Amino acid sequence: MTGFNRLALFDCDGTLVDSQHAIIAAMAAGFAAQGLAPPQDEAVRRQVGLSLDVAILGLLPEGVGPGAVAGIATAYKAAFFENRERGGAVEPLYPGLVAALDALEAAGFLLGIATGKSHRGLVATLEQHGLTGRFLTLQTADRAAGKPAPDMALRAMAEVGADPATTVVIGDTSYDMMMARAAGAAALGVAWGYHAPENLLAAGAARVCHDYAEVPAAVAALVAV
Question: Which range is the signal sequence, renumbered to this chain (predicted)?
């Protein structure tokens, strides 16, 4: 035994909840506020998981400088939260999530989140679904370096007494897999999110799950005990 706690560290957007429609709508509003055409939906999905500023920078059209990022980000946040207040920011849970969390906890895993969302946005999402308190560590890109840097994973481990050999990162994007590997943790991809399984495997996923029912056993198999 390692003596360290075992940690299942989840991404949020595209892994816990399907937030693509809310994100795409807010991004379109952010670009419109700067007089810019909205980016293509697929381009936005490819940026999900990165911190907001980095995602916007990657979506800027040719000829638009990085000085536009701050204004787009401000309008994005305002649009997202205004939409949520109106009940329009629908972020449904993926099927089987709660049962998978129950199974992981029953097997002795601690639960955490590392996400490109802001802390405020993450808390609102968890409250919406009655998940407040299920996750012992909440790591967000406004409080640490965003993915694919290892910082959020390392901070999560430190908070709950885990180490890389006892931590599995579960996510739907290449950025999640890269963060996990940079932190020395195991990487488990999920196929229901925003990056293709082959991209997850190329970025370092040990395997890719196609249903939440597969996740608890896959996580346990990846952790050294």
Answer: none
Query: Do the beta carbons of residue 170 and residue 143 sit within 8 Å?
Result: no
Whether 53 is catalytic is no
Domains belonging to the chain, first-starting first, are 5-18+91-222 (3.40.50.1000), 20-85 (1.10.150)
Q: In a 10 Å sphere around its CB, with 0-12 CB exposed, 13-18 middle and 19+ buried, how is residue 7 labelled?
A: buried
| Cβ proximity of 169 and 176 under 8 Å | yes
* Annotated catalytic residue 176: no
First-residue to last-residue Cα distance in the chain: 5
Cβ atoms of 193 and 134 within 8 Å: the answer is no
How many whole angstroms separate alpha carbon 48 and alpha carbon 189? Answer: 15
Count other C-beta atoms under 10 Å from residue 30's C-beta: 27
Which residues are paired to 167 by β-bridges? 7
Task: Tell me how far apart the alpha carbons of residues 73 and 75 are, in angstroms, rounded to a whole number.
Answer: 5
State the DSSP H helix or E strand holding residue 186, giving kind and residue range, or none if neither: strand 186-190
Query: Which amino acid is it at 70?
Result: A
pTM for the model stands at 0.91
| The residue type at 140 | T
